[in-house]
């Protein structure tokens, strides 16, 4: 591969991964605004159920967006669907900040969720389809790195806004409260994503599926995706079984869905049920609850996200060396251990008359470290592998549809776990909530050992419908 091809390949992959930045930003930006918009003084005076709805509705939208992303990308192409996602992000960012009722905020957050789901599907699928097999893992992890930077961007943006205006409840520019500007800060990267998407070449595999083989071959040469582009075109055409991909190809008479689809769906759903998102979404509220108040409760997630970026870079550096399965196994074991540790730490506290958890300072620090170590371990393992694995594990015939279904399952799990967090915390305390996450971690260990196949170095045209840990 020439230096020009290498630069073009990396440029294309980075531009496609910008959807991951918005993915992370959109999910995390609400963290700093929760206390303000849920309160009665400058917000809507929400109950725990209503709070859970506002936070989790993005996940519902993402599940819907992910499901339709596959068929839409097969019909209209990967690039057009990316541009559409950027439009959804932009509208949601602006209108969420300008919402003056609970209903409006929920609806505009739902719209943003559609964009999250679409970009979560299209980014990994597109990168997997343009990258050569030996570089697919590293390039695919750009999606997770972009998500990590998006989370960091949201946290640092919230922190800067609080520092400038005084608090999330303060009145800022044009008479709007700071928490509204937190939502609207997403508008700039959303527009940038759309502009960058317009510069991308279309996926060669999509072009082959609609009969544009000459154009597909030119793009393969342009990015150095294969040393023998003509032969690769023939293999792609054969793998597509001479008809365009259909959602019906996911189904199997014996199992309902093809075995690899079931595994990918379980993979996506259970990692969300392990509570990863709650460490981010409720970070400020969580650490205020256990005694870290004021600006420090906003700043702690910033530090965590920076460490998460470092761990993501580490995962990127080893994924094509050690493979997917080892990282998944180490990550599942690590998350299980730290979730148990967090549950033990939270069990040492007592409740105040107001319902807040009071921990002795030593246990508060232990809980902080343990809970955030779950996220840090996730960033270097499952976070890195998740979108790479889902983007490459499916055969060409069902890739975008399968990835869409698995991503929908991922966000349904995210919706459930974020919606239920305030309720579970009230019913069982933080200790019981984190213990339930540890149980999910144990299931993930079993899932990896028993069913997850290794996909390192396997050409997309050679992916199987079967499952197994061989």
Describe this structure in words.
By secondary structure, the chain is mainly α. It has 20 helices and 4 strands. It has a single domain (3-200, 245-462), classed as Up-down Bundle (Growth Hormone, Chain: A). It has helices at residues 3-28, 34-38, 48-76, 78-97, 102-130, 136-140, 142-165, 178-184, 187-197, 204-209, 213-223, 229-239, 259-273, 276-281, 283-289, 295-322, 324-346, 361-380, 382-392, 399-451; strands spanning 251-252, 256-257, 350-351, 357-358. The longest helix has 53 residues, at 399-451. The model has no long low-confidence stretch (mean pLDDT 82).
Write a concise synopsis of the structure shown.
The protein is an all-alpha fold and 470 residues long. The protein has helices at 3-28, 34-38, 48-76, 78-97, 102-130, 136-140, 142-165, 178-184, 187-197, 204-209, 213-223, 229-239, 259-273, 276-281, 283-289, 295-322, 324-346, 361-380, 382-392, 399-451, and strands at 251-252, 256-257, 350-351, 357-358.
Helix content: over 70%
Assigned CATH architecture: Up-down Bundle
How is the quaternary structure best described? Answer: single chain
Question: Beta fraction of the residues?
Answer: under 5%
Low-confidence stretches: none
- Shape by Cα distribution: globular
Which whole number gives the mean pLDDT?
82
Radius of gyration: 22 Å
Domains (count): 1
**Order of helix and strand elements from N to C terminus:** HHHHHHHHHHHHEEHHHHHEEHHH
Structural class: mainly alpha
CATH class bucket: Mainly Alpha
For the largest beta-sheet, the strand count, sense and barrel status come to: 2 strands, antiparallel
* Total strand segments: 4
Distance between the termini: 31 Å
Q: In CATH, what is the homologous superfamily?
A: MFS general substrate transporter like domains
Per CATH, what is the topology?
Growth Hormone, Chain: A
* Strand arrangement in the largest pleated sheet: 1-2
Number of helices: 20
């Amino acid at each position: 591969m020439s230096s020009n091809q290498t630069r073009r390949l990396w440029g294309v992959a980075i531009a496609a991964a910008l959807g991951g930045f918005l993915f992370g930003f959109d999910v995390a930006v609400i963290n700093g605004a929760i206390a303000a918009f849920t309160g009665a003084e400058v917000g809507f005076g929400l109950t725990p159920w209503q709070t859970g709805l506002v936070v989790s509705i993005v996940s519902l939208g993402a599940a819907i967006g992910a499901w339709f992303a596959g068929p839409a990308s097969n019909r209209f192409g990967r690039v057009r669907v990316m541009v559409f996602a950027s439009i959804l992000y932009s509208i949601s960012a602006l209108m969420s900040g300008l919402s003056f009722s609970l209903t409006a905020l929920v609806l505009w957050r739902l719209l943003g969720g559609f964009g999250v789901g679409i970009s979560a599907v299209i980014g990994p699928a597109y990168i997997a389809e343009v990258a050569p097999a030996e570089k697919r893992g590293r390039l695919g992890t750009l999606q997770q790195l972009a998500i990590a930077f998006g989370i960091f961007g949201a946290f640092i943006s919230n922190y800067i806004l609080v520092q400038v205006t005084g608090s999330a409840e303060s009145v800022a520019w044009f008479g709007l409260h700071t928490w509204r500007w937190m939502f609207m800060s997403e508008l700039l990267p959303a527009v940038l994503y759309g502009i960058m998407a317009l510069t991308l070449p279309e996926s060669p595999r999509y072009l082959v599926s609609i009969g544009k083989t000459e154009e597909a071959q030119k793009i393969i040469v342009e990015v150095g995706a294969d040393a023998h582009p003509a032969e690769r075109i023939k293999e792609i055409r054969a793998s597509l079984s001479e008809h365009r991909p259909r959602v019906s190809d996911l189904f199997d008479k014996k199992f309902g869905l093809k075995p690899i689809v079931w595994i990918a769906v379980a993979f996506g759903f259970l990692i969300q049920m392990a509570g990863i998102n709650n460490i981010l979404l409720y970070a400020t509220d969580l650490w205020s609850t256990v005694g870290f108040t004021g600006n420090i409760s906003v700043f702690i997630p910033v530090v965590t996200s920076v460490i998460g970026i470092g761990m993501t870079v580490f995962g990127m550096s080893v994924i094509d060396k050690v493979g997917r399965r080892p990282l998944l196994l180490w990550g599942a074991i690590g998350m299980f251990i730290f979730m148990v540790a967090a549950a033990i730490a939270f069990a040492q506290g007592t409740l105040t008359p107001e319902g807040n958890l009071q921990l002795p300072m030593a246990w508060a620090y232990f809980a902080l470290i343990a809970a955030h170590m779950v996220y840090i371990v996730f960033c270097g393992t499952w976070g890195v592998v998740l979108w790479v694995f889902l983007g490459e594990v499916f055969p060409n015939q069902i890739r975008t549809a399968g990835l869409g279904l698995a991503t929908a399952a991922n966000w349904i799990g995210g919706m459930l776990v974020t919606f239920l967090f305030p309720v579970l915390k009230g019913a069982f305390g933080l200790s019981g909530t984190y213990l339930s996450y540890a149980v999910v971690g144990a299931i993930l260990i079993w899932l990896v050992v028993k069913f997850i196949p290794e996909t390192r170095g396997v050409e997309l045209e050679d992916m199987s419908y079967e499952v197994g840990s061989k």
